[in-house]
Amino acid sequence: MSRRGSGAPPIARDAKFKKADRSPSASGEPTRMDDRKDDRLDGQSGGQPGCPPDGRRGFGGAEKKAVSFAKGAAGGTGGPGTGRSGPSGQAPEAEVLMESRDLYKSFQAGGERLSILAGLDLTIRKGRSVAVLGASGSGKSTLMYLLGGLDRPTMGLVFSKGRDIFRLSESELASWRSKEVGFVFQFHYLLSDFTALENVAMPVLLTGRGRAEALEMAGPILDRVGLSNRKDHRPGALSGGEQQRVALARALVMGPELLLADEPTGNLDARNAAMVNELILQLVNERQLSAVVVTHNARLAKQLDVCLELADGRLHEWKG
């Protein structure tokens, strides 16, 4: 692999590459500090998240509701996005991949407690895509962090294939994220010292696989997003649209079943935004991904299977 402009010997460069796989943002996930920063920018928090170590404590009947989900119940009741079965005689709904039930999240801001999510329900079915729209400060990013296990709810439950993700240990939760969830954020979170190909390979390195295997897995997905001729370029030498395409490739390199995209084109101009949006739609269809996409783009939202609006802490059918 070409390393133009690097004065380090090959062995030193390889060691540096391997060391980087332990970076908090190497997999594209923002650190906890980034999480809090995003919440403040979204008007949601002025201080530390005030949630108990176990997000389910003190939450009344939520544990009882967990029983049916843990047994693999496919249908939900009440609330949009639950995907209830159609009328008799119609084809059954797709299998449930993820569910959240009675999800609450609040933050302590000075002497005031801010409620962001208030009893939110959502069902995500295999191979189905969901658009989430809403005003700035409504809690869209907070919802994405909870669905991806990057933060814990104040109260409520999140299931992946019937398994309560917040009953997993920290190491188990990290393993679940790396294998089953791909993240794309408004900011690309690429590592500036590494090439596009190396950035895409980072999630593979985090699983303990070797450098050669990681690069071999990264190559095809980078080609798919149209950057085979830019694989040896570092982020600073890429345009904004190219950086976000690298981030999308990194999100998909492990073959996750769920893609979480939080305003993935929010920092791009109209031309690059349209290109990245179209690429996301293509990859979701090609790979039969489940996807949750937070967006202000009505045109993109209408091309997804379900359109919901987050308001007053809950999801509602979008009337756009």
How would you characterize the overall build of this protein?
The structure is a single chain. The strands form two sheets. The protein has a six-stranded mixed sheet. Helix content is 34%, strand content 20%. A hairpin with a 2-residue loop joins strand 9 (306-311) and strand 10. The protein has one domain (10-84, 94-317): Rossmann fold. It has helices at residues 10-20, 32-41, 62-70, 140-147, 170-180, 196-206, 211-224, 240-252, 270-286, 298-302; strands at 96-109, 112-125, 129-133, 155-160, 163-164, 181-184, 258-262, 290-294, 306-311, 314-317. By secondary structure, the protein is α/β, with parallel strands linked by helices. It starts with 9 loop residues before the first helix and ends with a strand. The protein has ten helices and ten strands.
Q: Please state the CA-atom Rg, rounded to the nearest Å.
A: 20 Å
Say how many strands there are.
Answer: 10
Largest sheet data: 6 strands, mixed
Largest sheet, order of strands side by side? 6-7-8-3-9-10
Helix content: 25-40%
Low-pLDDT runs of 5+ residues are 1-16, 18-24, 31-89
Q: At the fourth CATH level, what is the homologous superfamily? A: P-loop containing nucleotide triphosphate hydrolases
Average pLDDT reading: 78
